[in-house]
């Protein structure tokens, strides 16, 4: 038994987003591989979609499904952030908070009694509940240390003095960042985060995200980060100062490729990729939640056409091929593939034909690409993505497509020029070299395992009981 001979029982409780469930599962697998018992809690549809327990660990990872309570205006069967428009995300948090009695009952009655609960930012009510039951508490941040430093200390997050209520409030570098940095949102990024629905409704969960983050961090004994100190050392130093408690990185927890090589859809994609030269094409994918307007989708398409380089573009559920310019697919047929089904991103990123990744800057996707040494073309859309783009550009592993800071508009020329700069120009050589070096950091599974060893050692030594 790794970790001093003690078998821990660790409860996992992620937020209702596929991009949160998967890293929580990955950490669960890493902990189970070291002999520890895991109880993984989520809702039925989310567990079905995102949680696949390896057969050899099924005796250590117990999956617990709690039905998500119904909430007015929340679509039926909506259980994850990808099931609802961004403007209704807060309603999902209302439903999530209603899971409290079920979680409380489980923690009180499950045997063996949990040693730790690892939780996400949204469950602000959980730390106090667990503390009353004598269960140790770990907040698992799936955000970068830079993003969390921008948010501030728990006291700042919960202090009216530092309240950010308008989009403009988020465009200012906070006073507690002591070194030169442009770590702040653009106005258009936060305006999108604060959009109302078509009827002018602005939904509220009753608890702001700032309070959720503040209570979740404040009530934890340790804060776990899915990031690497080596990538953002100055930001880790700052969050340690801000939190005044142990901050433990676990690396990026490299994702295993779970798709079969003989999958029929993958074979079609692979055949097309195999026909391209090494490092010649840009892979384009903007995640499962991002939504572009028709004008934005068309400018992006025309920019890809104008750049003259091969591309593989995965359209997510928010787009229809009809949003693309007339005749676009015919005109680029000899060098561009527009794919409208779910695509195996890990397989695509690992293919030698892929030279660059045009990404929405979700931290999961960015780290997956860097794990294969792919240079990034940065196109943040929502949530934390703007600050991720600042960090990635600051670290010189990607270049952001220029946009109007107020309304987010951009041109086909800016898309074409940025793609060519990053993928083929002499000016972009240094960025390509920097990204290739990241393979050693983000693709190193032994480094990640060592990080997890340190976490386990701390959890064994400091558990409440």
Automatic annotation (TrEMBL):
Keyword RNA-binding attributed: no
Keywords on record: Glycosyltransferase, Transferase
SUPFAM superfamilies: UDP-Glycosyltransferase/glycogen phosphorylase (SSF53756)
InterPro entries listed in its UniProt record: UDP-glycosyltransf_plant (IPR050481), UDP_glucos_trans (IPR002213)
Family to which this protein belongs: Belongs to the UDP-glycosyltransferase family.
PANTHER family assigned to the protein according to its UniProt record, in alphabetical order: GLYCOSYLTRANSFERASE (PTHR48049), UDP-GLYCOSYLTRANSFERASE 91C1 (PTHR48049:SF138)
Name of this protein: UDP-glycosyltransferase 91C1
Species assigned in the record: Sesamum indicum
Gene responsible for this protein: LOC105166547
